[in-house]
Amino acid sequence: MLSAEGLRHAFGTGGGRVVALDNVSFSLEAGQTLAIFGPNGAGKTTLLKVLAGLIRPDAGRATVAGGRGAIGWIGHQSHLYGHLTVRENLLFWAALYAVPAATRATRADATLRQLGIADRAEQAVWSLSRGLAQRAAIAKALIHEPRVLLLDEPFTGLDLAAAAEFRALLARFQGAGRVVVLATHNVGEGVELATDVAFQRGGRFVHFAPRGARRPAQIAEEYRRAVGEKEADG
Amino acid sequence: MSLAHKGRRITLLGLVLLAGVYVRALAFTPLERFQGPAQKIFYLHVPAAWSAMLAMGLVGLCSILYLIVKDLRFDRFAAASAEVGTAFSLVMLTTGPIWAKPIWGTWWTWDARLTLTLFLFFLFIGYLLLRGAVVEPGLRARYSAVLGICGLVLLPFIHLSVYLFRTLHPQPIVLKPSSPSLPGSMLVTLLVSFAVFTLLYVGFVTQRYALALQREAQGREHA
Amino acid sequence: MADLLRQAWTVARKDLLLEFRTRTALVSALVFSALVLTMFNFGRDPTAVATIDLAPTILWVTFTFAAMLALNRAFQLELENQALEGLLVSPLSRTSLYWGKLLANLVFVALVEAVGLPLFVLFFDVPVGRVLLPLVGVIALATIGFVAVGTLFSALVIRTRFAELLLVVLLLPFLVPPLIGAVQVTARLLGGRPLSEAAGWFRLLAAYDIGFVSLATLLFPFTVDE
Prior knowledge:
Order of helices and strands of chain B: HHHHHH
Distance between the termini of chain B: 27 Å
CATH class of chain A: Alpha Beta
CATH superfamily of chain A: P-loop containing nucleotide triphosphate hydrolases
CATH topology of chain A: Rossmann fold
Largest sheet of chain A: 6 strands, mixed
Number of helices of chain B: 6
Largest sheet of chain B: none
Oligomer: heterotrimer
Largest interface: B-C, 28 and 33 residues
Number of strands of chain A: 9
Structural class of chain A: alpha/beta
Radius of gyration of chain A: 18 Å
Strand content of chain B: under 5%
Radius of gyration of chain B: 19 Å
Shape of chain B: globular
Number of domains of chain A: 1
Distance between the termini of chain A: 33 Å
Helix content of chain B: over 70%
CATH architecture of chain A: 3-Layer(aba) Sandwich
Number of helices of chain A: 7
Strand order of the largest sheet of chain A: 5-6-7-3-8-9
Order of helices and strands of chain A: EEEHEEHHHEHEEEHH
Strand content of chain A: 25-35%
């Protein structure tokens, strides 16, 4: 459903050259959830952007079944227009993702109910609290019922309760013919949801394996050994 | 021989030959019957305009090539060409009024080719400003290529619109297919000067290109 | 094609909805036009220069400068919450994005012009009744050309330092052909000259529009991709 073959990418030239992706290959089938752990600057965001078609890699190929329309993206930013209401935002993105006009309104309402913000539908996004805005952003990412979900540090800025809620939502989303890729610098975050685990460092996958029966603490220990004590904590 | 070295040699040769052009223009080329000594500045003005146009043409061409093959060498060349072109258009813009005052009786006039060269200068400046405002080399190359191509397409439009507006400039008298109306010795001086200015363009751009390479190498060492 | 246009319209509609929600840019541009027109009235010697001679220049300098205000905000509003990134990961084609932005900018500038033109007639007592149709035609032709280039450049400068200032410096040379053409045609129309006298200028304006709308459509993807 989702595959990467020999991805390479670097930013800048000469002295400023930073290798963000170094020969990254993997493929995921429906039902798999991959958690990618890596220190800041390991190239996780670049990888997600390549998968989403935002960055054309220097070499290699990334394919997602169904193309851009099948991808849902949740990053550091909500992609919502502050001066539009939550509902107007959702309707706009639904139209861009070619959700049929007849079903857009019902889809938007259903998604808002699912995230528990139906009562905020007519509120302008700028007036929402951080937690509510995050939920609106998730609603935006799910409005077209994507089959592939790409998550870039989705837990950043969420309080404990919101993070638990988000995990519960992800648990409902995964499986059933869908693929999730989750990247975070915080090892252990979301590990219980993952079917597969990768460690990324200096643009390279230094570890890629099914999670199996490994416990979070075990994975954290392996991560420390693979990435190095100092970088893992940084 | 390093690139910078070659560039310096070419430039030096160009400068020596430029002195030759001066001598030939001042001492061995007859006075133009109607314009008198003021016409001598043509041997600088027209070739400088040629070099500036050449510079813009190559900025545009390299911009197209960069967007197709994404090779940073084209970007480096375009940047060098734009800087050198700025200098040549300045020469052209200063020599023009010096000639125009005694002949046309005014320092400046909104004639088609004069206006065109002024905007050529503005385009070069805009191009260099944009380069200065973008930090990431890949983005900088891509953005400036977009502007370079637009600039190249704009020039004929400016020329046409100002030409329709009004024109006073002496009509081209060198390349009339029937009979060149410029007396032989003047034509030779002008053509020699064209060659020398083209050589100077090559020399300057080569040096500027080498300098860019050197800076990138220094950047690598610092990292 | 139908799909491209539908997506472009979705983007344009969203931009216009945002604009009418806040209204800051539109109101500023309208007030700006009214102010510039007023300034021109006092910035000339009415006994020495007949209004009719200066009128086309006044009209077009006002329109082009007001349009600049619109262009600045076109991509600025996509930076809020990095909505631009969202547009680029969506199936929206780059061409549709450009056309949508162009369309929204054109509507915005057309609104400013629709208010500016009557004000201009009122302030300077210029007879436009007989030539209204060709006048609107030349306004449309000139506007499409410079808004097409301006939309491309606003995407170009959005991630640079001093974006607003840079846009003006880059864009002004590109305003020369449409500005000269529009002023020339307007002068002939207001002077009661036959329309055929302006045929060459109309052709130039049309060529500029076709040339730069196509070129900008082609080059736009290079300005937004990371």
